[in-house]
TrEMBL record:
The gene is MANBAL. Its main location: membrane. The chain crosses the membrane at residues 21-42. One of its GO terms (cellular component) is membrane. This is Mannosidase beta like. It comes from Scleropages formosus (Asian bonytongue). Keywords: Membrane, Transmembrane, Transmembrane helix. InterPro entries: UPF0239. It is found in: Membrane. It comes from the Eukaryota. The lineage of its organism: Eukaryota, Metazoa, Chordata, Craniata, Vertebrata. Residues 46-65 have a biased composition (Basic and acidic residues).
Length: 86
């Protein structure tokens, strides 16, 4: 064991532009996900104030939509009447 151990730090190449872009993009994506999760968990004060101010009135999107025709109202060909023989 007369040989000396090399304890110098390994050479790490500089990150490329693509690696930097990927790293910062992942950080931004993680921050965006945290903001979205917090928006779902924490109620917004604006929506909460509207619910307290107008408990009798609902302003849902369902009331604002126009009713769509049902599938059964699709134009059908008239059926021919069969002649009955007696």
């Amino acid at each position: 064991m007369s040989g000396e151990l090399d304890l110098s730090p390994p050479e790490v190449p500089e990150p490329t532009l693509l690696e930097n872009l990927l790293r910062y993009g992942l950080f931004l994506g993680a921050i965006f996900q945290l903001v979205c999760i917090l928006a779902v968990i924490l109620p917004s004060s604006k929506a909460h104030d509207q619910e307290e101010a107008e408990p009798g009135e609902t302003h849902g999107t369902e009331q604002m939509r126009k009713p769509k025709g049902s599938v059964s109202q699709v134009r059908q060909k008239p059926k021919k009447e069969s002649k009955k023989k007696r």
